[in-house]
Amino acid sequence: MRTKTQTPEKKRAIVLLSGGLDSCVTLAVANKEHNVALLHVQYSQRTQPRESMAFHNIANYYHVPEDKILITGLDHFKKIGGSSLTDTKLPIDKGEAETTMPNTYVPFRNTLLLAIAVSWAEVIKAETIFIGAVEQDSPNYPDCRQEYYDVFNQLVDVGTMPSTQIKVVTPLIGMKKFEIVKMGIELNAPLPLTWSCYENNDLACGRCQSCTLRLRAFEDAGYVDKIHYLEKNRRPS
Amino acid sequence: MRTKTQTPEKKRAIVLLSGGLDSCVTLAVANKEHNVALLHVQYSQRTQPRESMAFHNIANYYHVPEDKILITGLDHFKKIGGSSLTDTKLPIDKGEAETTMPNTYVPFRNTLLLAIAVSWAEVIKAETIFIGAVEQDSPNYPDCRQEYYDVFNQLVDVGTMPSTQIKVVTPLIGMKKFEIVKMGIELNAPLPLTWSCYENNDLACGRCQSCTLRLRAFEDAGYVDKIHYLEKNRRPS
Asked: What pTM does this model have?
């Protein structure tokens, strides 16, 4: 079921939409009560082409018009390296998330993405920025924790024009991954259009941490993941 | 007098160097006790070509090697507009800085620049980031105030890997502009290589807020500004 989204009486919000599962469900949440604008940032990660395809498919599903879409590129993550997502010489960490920081961590990435969103929000007078950060069930990235968002919102308060009231919200932050899948299905989010794999641009690898988390989440939620996998990382029996 | 800068025993620092007066003096300060790496961000501002030339001239003066230089581009400020620095349809505000926000304000810009610096600092293990923000004698930009930097440093604490200790420092923040000129001259900073004009890429206009501030600062410091101006905005008599 498709939903018309652009009604003038709703308040404007910006949603950071990578094209992944979490950002898609976040958009489904935001879309209930907001007139959404979408931000998609291309930072030369390995799966950028596939994520951008997912972005466009999801944006089309929600009928978001061109003038409410900002697609922008950053080249410095590729230049500085330090993450297996942007440096193809580093192999992607596989399997379940560990307690240590995986090499898929892109240093201070969410601050970059959110800063672009805040700049845009100041110009288009959006008061809410949605980001699909997940603290539970995620690989220990420091910029996915509630504490980080509390401080970021303080920064927005002191770092923007006095006339603006912008707040970053994280509707999924306390949820387990299977709960996110369930919520997405309840909200008719187009989960088969999303892309989670860190490694491949054609068939999802099924073995990287992101595929593994996604496969577990659908399994635990009791739903079939309709995207195609090269192979599936099975739970140890 | 030129100074050799890259000595291994000094701690590494990143300096944000736009090519302007303040960032050049900040580099002169940082260079006294640090092994400096330089970040230059091109965000499609009107005077980007001239600022980048200033950047390279200053980097050469300090003998900073290529592998300690990161030049990166951002295209979203141009796309979103809202500032006369990036939108050539808006005329640049002229004359003395007012108490209201001038249209040269680029929304949340310093958060972007600093976020790139922090990402790089995590990779190259720099512990200090220098930025030439000036609170006094500047046009009321919210991201040039001490309060903003206090919160930004909290964000760095919570948003980076636990193993990193990165701090943003603002050595000029409490100084008047003429004091910055004096300090630059005392430290042999190459002030004639810097560029401040918001409007032109050839001869400085002498009338925009940035030229006006610079001209007043040299006058009050008792020094001659050796760059060439199209005309000079005289103090009202």
From this structure: 0.90
Using CA atoms in the order A30, A32, A37, A40, what is the torsion angle rounded to 10 degrees?
Answer: 50
Distances (CA, A) of A66 to A1, A26, A129, B82: 22, 20, 18, 19
Average pLDDT along chain A: 90
Separation in Å, CA of A230 to nearest CA in chain B:
32
CB-based burial label for B157 (10 Å; 0-12, 13-18, 19+)? middle
Q: What pLDDT does residue B4 have?
A: 53
Checking if the pLDDT of B6 tops 90, the result is: no
Three-state secondary structure string covering B169-209: ECCCCCCCHHHHHHHHHHCCCCHHHCCCCCCCCCCECCCEH
Taking Cα atoms as reference points, which of B2, B1, B34 lies closest to residue B15?
A: B34
How far apart are the C-alpha atoms of A54 and B228, rounded to whole Å? Answer: 52
What is the second-level CATH architecture of the domain A11-221? 3-Layer(aba) Sandwich (3.40)
d(CA B89, CA B49): 19
**Cα-Cα-Cα-Cα dihedral sign, residues A11, A116, A174, B166:** negative
The interface predicted TM-score (ipTM) is: 0.88
The model's pLDDT over B167-209, given as tens digits with 9 standing for 90+, comes to 999 999 999 999 999 999 999 999 999 999 999 999 999 999 8
Contacts of A146 (CB under 8 A, 6+ apart): A135, A170, A173, A174
| Min Cα–Cα distance to chain B from A151, Å | 6
Residue B55 confidence (pLDDT): 98
Q: Where are the domains of chain B?
A: 11-196
Q: Domain B11-196: give its CATH superfamily.
A: HUPs (3.40.50.620)
Query: Which has the higher per-residue pLDDT, A4 or B77?
Result: B77
C-beta atoms of B72 and A79 within 8 A: yes
Chain A residues within 8 A of B72 when measuring between CB atoms: 74-76, 79
- pLDDT band, residue B88 (cuts 50/70/90): confident
